[in-house]
UniProtKB/TrEMBL annotation:
SMART domains in UniProt: RAB, RAN, RAS, RHO
Signal peptide range in chain numbering: none
Name of the protein this chain belongs to: RTW, Ras superfamily GTPase
Originating organism: Ectocarpus siliculosus
GO molecular function: GTP binding; GTPase activity
Pfam family, one: Ras
Keywords attached to this entry: Nucleotide-binding
Keyword match Methyltransferase: no
Length: 202
């Protein structure tokens, strides 16, 4: 498995902060220690090479994902790298994102209650990107899968019970996020981001 780089620029390869633009940007949201990084690593397994982007204080995971039609796309998964401790993310984290994976820990009620805050911030910066909800750590007690979590229903979000520990539904959920992100991009993306790009002359 690729060595994880967690010490900032000293442990980065030249050019890590100047990667070629991805075809897709997927962001992860949720409280600290809900398992976001472990979920990404479980999804990517041996194929990933995480890079610590010190400029943004986040971790970038890149994967070449294969769509249903066999087309391969470069996907960047943005992980918060602990910044969520401050209860909000920098607006640049959301910039030009195509999909969001929001995560809570089924063993900690507070992480579920805080979803409304994360979702509110997401919609403040990314009005219309597809978002799906993951209930992580179901391996602690599989009986939790019999419970109903209304947040997903209230906001019409695809919902997955997953376990980063044993892999349950992880690939399925991430593949769904990639698929939804590509569909979103194909249909024109987020108007707010496009308007900002035009204003900035990009």
């Amino acid at each position: 498995m690729s060595e994880r780089k967690t010490e900032g620029k000293d442990h980065m390869e030249d050019g890590d902060e100047d990667l070629e633009d991805p075809d897709l940007k997927v962001i992860l949201l949720g409280d600290s220690a809900v398992g976001k990084s472990k979920l990404v690593e479980r999804y990517l397994m041996d194929e990933y090479n995480p890079r610590q982007l010190s400029t943004f204080a986040l971790t970038l995971f890149r994967k070449n994902a294969k769509l249903d039609d066999g087309v391969e796309v470069k996907v960047d998964f943005w992980d918060t790298a602990g910044q969520e401790r401050f209860s909000s993310m920098h607006p640049s984290y959301y910039y030009r994102a195509h999909a969001c994976i929001m995560v809570f820990d089924v063993t900690r009620k507070a992480t579920y209650k805080n979803l409304s805050d994360w979702y509110g911030e997401l919609r403040q910066y990314s009005e219309s990107i597809p978002c799906l909800l993951i209930a992580n750590k179901i391996d602690v007690d599989y009986q939790v899968t019999k419970k109903s979590f209304k947040f997903a229903q209230q906001h019409d979000l695809p919902f997955f019970f997953v376990s980063a520990a044993d892999g349950t539904n992880v690939v399925k959920a991430f593949d769904e996020a990639v698929k939804a992100g590509m569909e979103f991009k194909k249909n024109g993306g987020d108007f707010v981001d496009e308007a900002l790009s035009l204003l900035e002359g990009k």
